[in-house]
Protein backbone atom coordinates (compact mmCIF):
# COMPACT_ATOMS: atom_id res chain seq x y z
CA UNK A 1 0.00 0.00 0.00
CA UNK A 2 1.12 3.63 -0.42
CA UNK A 3 3.19 5.28 2.26
CA UNK A 4 1.43 6.31 5.46
CA UNK A 5 1.92 9.66 7.12
CA UNK A 6 4.99 9.31 9.31
CA UNK A 7 6.07 11.29 12.36
CA UNK A 8 8.92 13.70 11.61
CA UNK A 9 12.49 12.96 12.63
CA UNK A 10 13.54 14.03 16.11
CA UNK A 11 15.54 16.89 14.60
CA UNK A 12 12.59 18.13 12.53
CA UNK A 13 10.12 17.70 15.40
CA UNK A 14 12.37 19.71 17.71
CA UNK A 15 12.66 22.53 15.19
CA UNK A 16 8.90 22.63 14.64
CA UNK A 17 8.37 22.93 18.41
CA UNK A 18 10.88 25.78 18.54
CA UNK A 19 9.12 27.48 15.62
CA UNK A 20 5.75 27.11 17.34
CA UNK A 21 7.03 28.56 20.62
CA UNK A 22 9.63 30.92 19.21
CA UNK A 23 8.74 33.95 21.34
CA UNK A 24 8.88 32.14 24.68
CA UNK A 25 12.05 30.15 23.85
CA UNK A 26 14.06 32.95 22.25
CA UNK A 27 12.72 36.06 24.00
CA UNK A 28 11.21 34.75 27.23
CA UNK A 29 7.85 36.27 26.26
CA UNK A 30 4.82 34.28 27.43
CA UNK A 31 1.84 36.64 27.23
CA UNK A 32 0.22 38.33 24.25
CA UNK A 33 0.56 41.73 25.93
CA UNK A 34 4.31 41.31 26.45
CA UNK A 35 4.67 40.09 22.88
CA UNK A 36 2.98 43.18 21.42
CA UNK A 37 4.97 45.48 23.68
CA UNK A 38 8.24 43.83 22.61
CA UNK A 39 7.40 44.38 18.94
CA UNK A 40 6.12 47.92 19.44
CA UNK A 41 9.25 49.07 21.29
CA UNK A 42 11.72 47.02 19.20
CA UNK A 43 12.99 45.58 22.48
CA UNK A 44 13.64 42.25 20.73
CA UNK A 45 16.59 43.85 18.91
CA UNK A 46 18.52 43.88 22.21
CA UNK A 47 18.21 40.10 22.65
CA UNK A 48 21.01 37.87 21.35
CA UNK A 49 18.97 34.67 21.56
CA UNK A 50 20.07 31.05 22.08
CA UNK A 51 21.32 30.38 18.53
CA UNK A 52 24.20 32.85 18.25
CA UNK A 53 26.76 30.05 18.05
CA UNK A 54 24.75 27.35 16.29
CA UNK A 55 26.11 25.95 13.01
CA UNK A 56 24.65 27.12 9.72
CA UNK A 57 22.78 23.85 9.09
CA UNK A 58 20.80 24.31 12.31
CA UNK A 59 19.96 27.92 11.49
CA UNK A 60 18.84 26.91 7.98
CA UNK A 61 16.65 24.16 9.43
CA UNK A 62 15.03 26.57 11.88
CA UNK A 63 14.35 29.09 9.11
CA UNK A 64 12.64 26.33 7.10
CA UNK A 65 10.63 25.22 10.13
CA UNK A 66 9.39 28.76 10.82
CA UNK A 67 8.44 29.19 7.14
CA UNK A 68 6.49 25.94 7.28
CA UNK A 69 4.32 27.15 10.15
CA UNK A 70 4.33 30.93 10.00
CA UNK A 71 5.53 34.00 8.12
CA UNK A 72 9.15 35.01 8.68
CA UNK A 73 8.98 38.17 10.79
CA UNK A 74 11.71 40.54 11.91
CA UNK A 75 11.73 38.83 15.30
CA UNK A 76 12.65 35.52 13.65
CA UNK A 77 15.22 36.97 11.27
CA UNK A 78 16.95 38.93 14.05
CA UNK A 79 17.62 35.69 15.95
CA UNK A 80 18.36 33.34 13.04
CA UNK A 81 20.42 35.49 10.65
CA UNK A 82 23.77 34.93 12.34
CA UNK A 83 27.24 35.63 10.87
CA UNK A 84 27.98 31.92 10.41
CA UNK A 85 24.95 31.40 8.13
CA UNK A 86 26.17 30.31 4.69
CA UNK A 87 22.84 29.58 2.93
CA UNK A 88 19.65 31.66 2.82
CA UNK A 89 16.39 31.19 0.93
CA UNK A 90 14.02 34.17 0.84
CA UNK A 91 12.26 33.18 -2.39
CA UNK A 92 8.55 33.82 -2.96
CA UNK A 93 8.63 36.58 -0.32
CA UNK A 94 8.31 34.19 2.61
CA UNK A 95 8.37 36.97 5.17
CA UNK A 96 9.84 40.39 5.87
CA UNK A 97 12.26 40.19 2.96
CA UNK A 98 13.40 43.83 3.00
CA UNK A 99 14.46 43.55 6.63
CA UNK A 100 16.01 40.16 5.92
CA UNK A 101 18.10 41.54 3.06
CA UNK A 102 19.21 44.46 5.23
CA UNK A 103 20.30 42.23 8.11
CA UNK A 104 21.98 39.62 5.95
CA UNK A 105 24.15 42.27 4.23
CA UNK A 106 25.24 43.55 7.65
CA UNK A 107 25.94 40.22 9.32
CA UNK A 108 26.42 37.36 6.86
CA UNK A 109 29.61 38.33 5.06
CA UNK A 110 30.49 34.68 4.33
CA UNK A 111 27.17 33.75 2.72
CA UNK A 112 27.74 31.14 -0.01
CA UNK A 113 24.22 30.45 -1.32
CA UNK A 114 21.46 33.05 -1.73
CA UNK A 115 18.03 32.43 -3.26
CA UNK A 116 15.81 35.50 -3.69
CA UNK A 117 13.86 34.20 -6.69
CA UNK A 118 10.36 35.53 -7.45
CA UNK A 119 10.83 38.72 -5.39
CA UNK A 120 9.39 40.96 -8.10
CA UNK A 121 8.63 43.73 -5.64
CA UNK A 122 12.25 44.38 -4.69
CA UNK A 123 13.58 47.57 -6.27
CA UNK A 124 16.64 47.10 -8.55
CA UNK A 125 18.57 49.63 -6.45
CA UNK A 126 18.18 47.41 -3.40
CA UNK A 127 19.42 44.42 -5.38
CA UNK A 128 22.40 46.45 -6.59
CA UNK A 129 23.40 47.07 -2.98
CA UNK A 130 23.43 43.38 -2.14
CA UNK A 131 26.19 41.94 -4.27
CA UNK A 132 29.23 43.94 -3.08
CA UNK A 133 28.72 42.49 0.42
CA UNK A 134 28.92 38.84 -0.66
CA UNK A 135 32.30 38.10 -2.19
CA UNK A 136 32.10 34.43 -1.12
CA UNK A 137 28.91 33.56 -3.03
CA UNK A 138 29.02 30.30 -5.00
CA UNK A 139 25.30 30.13 -5.88
CA UNK A 140 22.90 33.00 -6.61
CA UNK A 141 19.28 32.57 -7.75
CA UNK A 142 17.74 35.77 -9.16
CA UNK A 143 14.95 34.11 -11.12
CA UNK A 144 11.93 36.40 -11.72
CA UNK A 145 13.50 39.40 -9.99
CA UNK A 146 14.08 42.91 -11.36
CA UNK A 147 17.75 42.20 -11.97
CA UNK A 148 19.18 44.73 -14.43
CA UNK A 149 22.36 44.83 -16.49
CA UNK A 150 24.23 46.99 -13.95
CA UNK A 151 23.78 44.28 -11.32
CA UNK A 152 25.52 41.74 -13.54
CA UNK A 153 28.49 44.08 -13.74
CA UNK A 154 28.58 44.14 -9.94
CA UNK A 155 28.36 40.34 -9.78
CA UNK A 156 31.28 40.01 -12.19
CA UNK A 157 33.41 42.41 -10.12
CA UNK A 158 32.56 41.16 -6.65
CA UNK A 159 31.83 37.42 -6.85
CA UNK A 160 34.94 35.67 -8.19
CA UNK A 161 33.94 32.33 -6.63
CA UNK A 162 30.43 32.23 -8.14
CA UNK A 163 29.67 28.83 -9.72
CA UNK A 164 25.91 28.94 -10.35
CA UNK A 165 23.87 31.97 -11.51
CA UNK A 166 20.16 31.80 -12.38
CA UNK A 167 18.82 34.79 -14.33
CA UNK A 168 15.61 33.23 -15.68
CA UNK A 169 12.85 35.72 -16.58
CA UNK A 170 14.82 38.83 -15.65
CA UNK A 171 15.01 41.99 -17.84
CA UNK A 172 18.70 41.53 -18.67
CA UNK A 173 20.12 42.12 -22.16
CA UNK A 174 23.30 41.30 -24.04
CA UNK A 175 24.97 44.27 -22.39
CA UNK A 176 24.39 42.72 -18.96
CA UNK A 177 26.02 39.44 -19.94
CA UNK A 178 29.00 41.27 -21.42
CA UNK A 179 29.37 43.31 -18.21
CA UNK A 180 29.24 40.06 -16.24
CA UNK A 181 32.06 38.53 -18.28
CA UNK A 182 34.21 41.55 -19.19
CA UNK A 183 35.49 44.15 -16.72
CA UNK A 184 35.89 47.88 -17.27
CA UNK A 185 39.51 47.30 -18.27
CA UNK A 186 38.52 44.69 -20.83
CA UNK A 187 39.77 41.79 -18.70
CA UNK A 188 37.61 38.66 -18.35
CA UNK A 189 35.86 38.09 -15.00
CA UNK A 190 33.38 35.65 -13.36
CA UNK A 191 35.78 32.93 -14.47
CA UNK A 192 34.52 30.34 -11.97
CA UNK A 193 30.99 30.13 -13.43
CA UNK A 194 29.96 26.57 -14.24
CA UNK A 195 26.20 27.06 -14.69
CA UNK A 196 24.42 30.08 -16.19
CA UNK A 197 20.65 30.18 -16.83
CA UNK A 198 19.28 32.92 -19.11
CA UNK A 199 15.91 31.53 -20.27
CA UNK A 200 13.11 34.06 -20.91
CA UNK A 201 15.43 37.07 -21.04
CA UNK A 202 16.36 39.54 -23.79
CA UNK A 203 19.69 37.86 -24.48
CA UNK A 204 20.53 37.27 -28.16
CA UNK A 205 23.13 35.18 -29.96
CA UNK A 206 25.58 38.10 -29.76
CA UNK A 207 25.56 38.13 -25.95
CA UNK A 208 25.65 34.34 -25.77
CA UNK A 209 28.73 34.31 -28.01
CA UNK A 210 30.59 36.62 -25.61
CA UNK A 211 29.60 34.35 -22.72
CA UNK A 212 30.99 31.19 -24.30
CA UNK A 213 34.14 32.95 -25.45
CA UNK A 214 34.74 34.42 -21.99
CA UNK A 215 33.72 31.71 -19.50
CA UNK A 216 36.08 28.82 -20.06
CA UNK A 217 34.61 26.62 -17.30
CA UNK A 218 30.94 26.93 -18.24
CA UNK A 219 29.29 23.50 -18.44
CA UNK A 220 25.57 24.36 -18.40
CA UNK A 221 24.24 27.25 -20.50
CA UNK A 222 20.57 27.09 -21.48
CA UNK A 223 20.60 29.54 -24.40
CA UNK A 224 18.12 28.08 -26.90
CA UNK A 225 19.94 28.95 -30.15
CA UNK A 226 23.17 27.27 -29.19
CA UNK A 227 24.16 26.00 -32.64
CA UNK A 228 24.16 29.52 -34.11
CA UNK A 229 26.35 30.68 -31.23
CA UNK A 230 28.82 27.83 -31.67
CA UNK A 231 29.07 28.56 -35.38
CA UNK A 232 29.88 32.20 -34.61
CA UNK A 233 32.41 31.15 -32.02
CA UNK A 234 34.42 29.08 -34.46
CA UNK A 235 34.94 32.17 -36.61
CA UNK A 236 35.87 34.37 -33.62
CA UNK A 237 38.55 36.96 -34.35
CA UNK A 238 39.57 40.45 -33.31
CA UNK A 239 37.08 42.03 -35.70
CA UNK A 240 34.16 40.06 -34.23
CA UNK A 241 35.28 40.85 -30.67
CA UNK A 242 35.46 44.55 -31.51
CA UNK A 243 32.04 44.49 -33.15
CA UNK A 244 30.32 42.65 -30.27
CA UNK A 245 31.94 44.61 -27.44
CA UNK A 246 31.56 48.00 -29.09
CA UNK A 247 27.92 47.14 -29.74
CA UNK A 248 27.30 47.19 -25.99
CA UNK A 249 29.78 49.99 -25.19
CA UNK A 250 32.43 47.84 -23.51
CA UNK A 251 36.11 48.49 -24.17
CA UNK A 252 38.45 45.92 -25.64
CA UNK A 253 41.25 44.29 -23.70
CA UNK A 254 44.76 45.19 -24.78
CA UNK A 255 45.38 41.49 -25.36
CA UNK A 256 43.40 39.77 -28.10
CA UNK A 257 41.04 37.04 -26.89
CA UNK A 258 41.60 33.83 -28.89
CA UNK A 259 38.83 31.69 -30.32
CA UNK A 260 38.31 28.64 -28.07
CA UNK A 261 39.10 25.22 -29.52
CA UNK A 262 37.18 23.37 -26.78
CA UNK A 263 34.15 24.11 -24.59
CA UNK A 264 33.21 21.96 -21.57
CA UNK A 265 29.48 22.39 -22.30
CA UNK A 266 27.45 19.30 -21.44
CA UNK A 267 24.01 20.59 -22.47
CA UNK A 268 23.07 21.83 -25.97
CA UNK A 269 19.61 23.34 -26.56
CA UNK A 270 18.10 24.65 -29.79
CA UNK A 271 14.51 25.70 -30.48
CA UNK A 272 15.31 27.73 -33.62
CA UNK A 273 13.55 26.83 -36.86
CA UNK A 274 16.64 27.61 -38.91
CA UNK A 275 19.67 25.53 -37.93
CA UNK A 276 22.65 25.35 -40.27
CA UNK A 277 24.74 22.23 -40.74
CA UNK A 278 27.82 24.30 -40.03
CA UNK A 279 26.36 24.97 -36.57
CA UNK A 280 25.96 21.25 -35.92
CA UNK A 281 29.51 20.65 -37.14
CA UNK A 282 30.80 23.36 -34.81
CA UNK A 283 29.00 21.71 -31.89
CA UNK A 284 30.63 18.34 -32.53
CA UNK A 285 34.08 19.93 -32.71
CA UNK A 286 33.81 22.39 -29.80
CA UNK A 287 31.64 20.33 -27.41
CA UNK A 288 32.80 16.69 -27.54
CA UNK A 289 31.73 16.18 -23.91
CA UNK A 290 28.06 17.02 -24.53
CA UNK A 291 25.79 14.61 -22.65
CA UNK A 292 22.41 16.19 -23.41
CA UNK A 293 21.06 17.49 -26.75
CA UNK A 294 17.65 19.13 -27.25
CA UNK A 295 16.58 19.95 -30.80
CA UNK A 296 13.09 21.37 -31.40
CA UNK A 297 11.28 22.85 -34.42
CA UNK A 298 14.32 22.81 -36.74
CA UNK A 299 13.68 22.28 -40.45
CA UNK A 300 16.49 19.77 -40.88
CA UNK A 301 16.73 16.69 -43.07
CA UNK A 302 16.75 13.29 -41.37
CA UNK A 303 20.38 12.61 -42.27
CA UNK A 304 21.44 15.84 -40.55
CA UNK A 305 20.80 14.10 -37.23
CA UNK A 306 23.76 11.82 -37.95
CA UNK A 307 26.01 14.59 -36.64
CA UNK A 308 24.84 13.64 -33.13
CA UNK A 309 26.50 10.23 -33.51
CA UNK A 310 29.81 11.97 -32.84
CA UNK A 311 28.81 12.82 -29.26
CA UNK A 312 30.40 9.83 -27.55
CA UNK A 313 29.01 10.73 -24.10
CA UNK A 314 25.44 11.46 -25.15
CA UNK A 315 23.00 10.21 -22.49
CA UNK A 316 19.94 12.44 -23.06
CA UNK A 317 18.29 13.16 -26.41
CA UNK A 318 15.17 15.25 -27.03
CA UNK A 319 13.83 15.64 -30.58
CA UNK A 320 10.72 17.63 -31.53
CA UNK A 321 9.90 17.59 -35.23
CA UNK A 322 9.22 20.80 -37.13
CA UNK A 323 5.81 21.75 -38.50
CA UNK A 324 6.98 20.44 -41.85
CA UNK A 325 7.70 17.00 -40.34
CA UNK A 326 11.12 17.01 -41.99
CA UNK A 327 12.55 14.39 -39.62
CA UNK A 328 11.70 10.74 -40.18
CA UNK A 329 12.08 8.21 -37.38
CA UNK A 330 13.53 5.39 -39.49
CA UNK A 331 15.74 7.54 -41.71
CA UNK A 332 17.00 9.92 -39.04
CA UNK A 333 16.31 8.95 -35.44
CA UNK A 334 16.81 5.18 -35.50
CA UNK A 335 20.36 5.30 -36.94
CA UNK A 336 21.31 7.74 -34.17
CA UNK A 337 19.78 5.42 -31.56
CA UNK A 338 21.64 2.46 -33.05
CA UNK A 339 24.91 4.32 -32.44
CA UNK A 340 24.22 6.23 -29.22
CA UNK A 341 21.45 4.04 -27.78
CA UNK A 342 23.65 1.87 -25.54
CA UNK A 343 24.54 5.04 -23.58
CA UNK A 344 21.14 6.76 -23.65
CA UNK A 345 19.32 7.18 -20.33
CA UNK A 346 16.70 9.75 -21.38
CA UNK A 347 14.74 10.01 -24.64
CA UNK A 348 12.00 12.45 -25.71
CA UNK A 349 10.30 12.21 -29.11
CA UNK A 350 7.53 14.58 -30.23
CA UNK A 351 5.58 15.28 -33.41
CA UNK A 352 6.63 12.27 -35.50
CA UNK A 353 4.48 10.48 -38.07
CA UNK A 354 5.57 7.09 -36.75
CA UNK A 355 7.76 5.56 -34.06
CA UNK A 356 9.09 2.02 -33.77
CA UNK A 357 8.95 0.95 -30.12
CA UNK A 358 10.79 -2.28 -30.90
CA UNK A 359 13.59 -0.31 -32.54
CA UNK A 360 13.94 1.84 -29.42
CA UNK A 361 13.93 -1.25 -27.20
CA UNK A 362 16.63 -3.00 -29.21
CA UNK A 363 18.87 0.07 -29.36
CA UNK A 364 18.44 1.60 -25.90
CA UNK A 365 18.83 -1.15 -23.30
CA UNK A 366 19.71 1.26 -20.46
CA UNK A 367 16.89 3.74 -21.03
CA UNK A 368 15.50 5.11 -17.74
CA UNK A 369 13.15 7.87 -18.87
CA UNK A 370 11.13 8.04 -22.07
CA UNK A 371 8.46 10.52 -23.18
CA UNK A 372 6.56 10.45 -26.48
CA UNK A 373 4.07 13.07 -27.60
CA UNK A 374 1.93 13.62 -30.69
CA UNK A 375 3.02 10.45 -32.45
CA UNK A 376 0.63 9.68 -35.31
CA UNK A 377 1.35 5.94 -35.36
CA UNK A 378 3.20 3.45 -33.20
CA UNK A 379 4.36 0.63 -35.43
CA UNK A 380 3.31 -2.92 -34.57
CA UNK A 381 5.97 -5.37 -33.53
CA UNK A 382 6.44 -9.09 -32.96
CA UNK A 383 6.61 -10.98 -29.67
CA UNK A 384 7.15 -9.02 -26.47
CA UNK A 385 10.80 -9.11 -25.39
CA UNK A 386 11.72 -9.29 -21.71
CA UNK A 387 15.12 -7.68 -22.37
CA UNK A 388 13.73 -4.32 -23.48
CA UNK A 389 12.88 -1.35 -21.23
CA UNK A 390 14.00 -3.19 -18.09
CA UNK A 391 15.60 -0.05 -16.59
CA UNK A 392 12.67 2.34 -17.10
CA UNK A 393 11.89 4.65 -14.18
CA UNK A 394 9.63 7.19 -15.90
CA UNK A 395 7.24 6.86 -18.84
CA UNK A 396 5.10 9.58 -20.44
CA UNK A 397 2.77 8.95 -23.39
CA UNK A 398 0.90 11.99 -24.72
CA UNK A 399 -1.59 10.80 -27.31
CA UNK A 400 -4.89 11.73 -28.93
CA UNK A 401 -7.98 9.88 -27.60
CA UNK A 402 -8.79 8.83 -31.18
CA UNK A 403 -5.31 7.39 -31.82
CA UNK A 404 -5.08 3.66 -32.54
CA UNK A 405 -2.76 2.33 -29.83
CA UNK A 406 -1.76 -1.30 -29.48
CA UNK A 407 -2.21 -2.87 -26.01
CA UNK A 408 0.99 -4.84 -26.60
CA UNK A 409 2.91 -1.56 -26.68
CA UNK A 410 1.87 -0.90 -23.07
CA UNK A 411 2.76 -4.46 -22.12
CA UNK A 412 6.19 -4.11 -23.69
CA UNK A 413 6.84 -0.80 -21.96
CA UNK A 414 5.53 -1.76 -18.52
CA UNK A 415 5.91 -5.49 -17.89
CA UNK A 416 9.66 -5.63 -17.28
CA UNK A 417 10.53 -2.42 -15.40
CA UNK A 418 10.37 -3.13 -11.64
CA UNK A 419 11.91 0.26 -10.80
CA UNK A 420 9.18 2.35 -12.45
CA UNK A 421 8.51 5.51 -10.42
CA UNK A 422 6.59 7.96 -12.60
CA UNK A 423 3.78 7.26 -15.08
CA UNK A 424 1.87 9.77 -17.19
CA UNK A 425 -0.71 8.80 -19.80
CA UNK A 426 -2.73 11.30 -21.84
CA UNK A 427 -5.43 10.32 -24.30
CA UNK A 428 -4.70 6.59 -24.04
CA UNK A 429 -8.14 5.06 -24.70
CA UNK A 430 -6.74 1.54 -24.98
CA UNK A 431 -5.56 1.65 -21.38
CA UNK A 432 -8.30 -0.16 -19.45
CA UNK A 433 -8.70 -1.44 -15.91
CA UNK A 434 -8.21 -4.98 -17.20
CA UNK A 435 -5.01 -4.19 -19.12
CA UNK A 436 -3.50 -2.12 -16.31
CA UNK A 437 -4.36 -4.77 -13.71
CA UNK A 438 -2.92 -7.52 -15.90
CA UNK A 439 0.35 -5.57 -16.12
CA UNK A 440 0.58 -4.82 -12.40
CA UNK A 441 -0.04 -8.46 -11.51
CA UNK A 442 3.14 -9.36 -13.41
CA UNK A 443 5.07 -6.20 -12.52
CA UNK A 444 3.69 -4.66 -9.29
CA UNK A 445 5.89 -1.55 -9.75
CA UNK A 446 6.60 -1.35 -6.04
CA UNK A 447 8.54 1.91 -6.42
CA UNK A 448 5.75 3.77 -8.25
CA UNK A 449 5.35 7.22 -6.66
CA UNK A 450 3.60 9.43 -9.26
CA UNK A 451 0.65 8.55 -11.49
CA UNK A 452 -1.05 10.98 -13.89
CA UNK A 453 -4.05 10.00 -16.03
CA UNK A 454 -5.32 12.65 -18.45
CA UNK A 455 -8.28 11.90 -20.75
CA UNK A 456 -7.88 8.16 -20.16
CA UNK A 457 -11.58 7.36 -20.39
CA UNK A 458 -11.40 3.57 -19.97
CA UNK A 459 -9.90 3.74 -16.47
CA UNK A 460 -12.33 3.64 -13.54
CA UNK A 461 -12.14 3.95 -9.80
CA UNK A 462 -11.83 0.16 -9.49
CA UNK A 463 -8.27 0.18 -10.78
CA UNK A 464 -7.34 3.13 -8.57
CA UNK A 465 -8.59 1.24 -5.51
CA UNK A 466 -6.55 -1.72 -6.74
CA UNK A 467 -3.48 0.54 -6.75
CA UNK A 468 -4.22 1.73 -3.22
CA UNK A 469 -4.43 -1.92 -2.15
CA UNK A 470 -1.09 -2.75 -3.77
CA UNK A 471 2.41 -2.40 -2.39
CA UNK A 472 3.94 0.78 -3.83
CA UNK A 473 5.27 4.20 -2.85
CA UNK A 474 2.50 6.36 -4.31
CA UNK A 475 2.59 9.95 -3.12
CA UNK A 476 0.88 11.75 -6.04
CA UNK A 477 -2.19 10.74 -8.07
CA UNK A 478 -3.48 13.17 -10.70
CA UNK A 479 -6.76 12.40 -12.47
CA UNK A 480 -7.56 14.92 -15.17
CA UNK A 481 -10.71 14.83 -17.33
CA UNK A 482 -11.19 11.07 -17.29
CA UNK A 483 -14.78 10.22 -18.28
CA UNK A 484 -15.26 7.30 -15.87
CA UNK A 485 -13.54 8.89 -12.89
CA UNK A 486 -16.41 10.93 -11.53
CA UNK A 487 -16.87 13.33 -8.67
CA UNK A 488 -18.19 10.42 -6.62
CA UNK A 489 -15.04 8.42 -7.42
CA UNK A 490 -12.90 11.33 -6.31
CA UNK A 491 -14.83 11.60 -3.03
CA UNK A 492 -14.42 7.88 -2.41
CA UNK A 493 -10.69 7.98 -3.04
CA UNK A 494 -10.22 11.12 -0.93
CA UNK A 495 -12.13 9.59 1.96
CA UNK A 496 -10.14 6.38 1.80
CA UNK A 497 -6.80 8.20 1.65
CA UNK A 498 -7.80 10.19 4.72
CA UNK A 499 -9.29 7.27 6.66
CA UNK A 500 -6.27 5.04 6.05
CA UNK A 501 -3.75 7.80 6.81
CA UNK A 502 -2.12 7.56 3.38
CA UNK A 503 0.50 10.17 2.54
CA UNK A 504 -0.94 10.68 -0.96
CA UNK A 505 -1.75 13.92 -2.79
CA UNK A 506 -4.88 13.43 -4.92
CA UNK A 507 -5.79 15.89 -7.68
CA UNK A 508 -8.96 15.51 -9.76
CA UNK A 509 -10.52 17.57 -12.55
CA UNK A 510 -13.96 16.75 -13.90
CA UNK A 511 -14.33 15.58 -17.49
CA UNK A 512 -15.75 18.21 -19.83
CA UNK A 513 -16.52 17.60 -23.49
From TrEMBL:
The lineage of its organism: Eukaryota, Metazoa, Ecdysozoa, Arthropoda, Hexapoda. This is Uncharacterized protein. GO terms for cellular component: SCF ubiquitin ligase complex. PANTHER family: F-BOX PROTEIN YLR352W, PARTNER OF PAIRED, ISOFORM B-RELATED. InterPro entries: Leu-rich_rpt_Cys-con_subtyp (IPR006553), LRR_dom_sf (IPR032675). Gene3D superfamilies: Ribonuclease Inhibitor. It comes from the Eukaryota. SMART domains: LRR_CC. GO terms for biological process: SCF-dependent proteasomal ubiquitin-dependent protein catabolic process.
Amino acid sequence: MPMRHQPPSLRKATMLVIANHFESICYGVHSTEDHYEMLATDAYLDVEGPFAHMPSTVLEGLLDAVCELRVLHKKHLHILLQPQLDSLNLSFGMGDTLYGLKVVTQRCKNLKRLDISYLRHINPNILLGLVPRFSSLVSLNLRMTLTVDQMLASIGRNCPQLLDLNLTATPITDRGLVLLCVGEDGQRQAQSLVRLVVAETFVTAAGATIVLQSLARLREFDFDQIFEVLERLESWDAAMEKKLLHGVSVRLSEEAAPAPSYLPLTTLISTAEQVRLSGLDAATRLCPDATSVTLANAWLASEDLYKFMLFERLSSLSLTNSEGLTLDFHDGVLPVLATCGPRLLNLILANFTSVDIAGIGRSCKKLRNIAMSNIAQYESFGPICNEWFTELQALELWSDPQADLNPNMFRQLLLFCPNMQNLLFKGCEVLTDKLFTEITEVNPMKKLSHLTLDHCHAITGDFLHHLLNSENELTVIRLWSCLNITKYTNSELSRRICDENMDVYLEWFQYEE
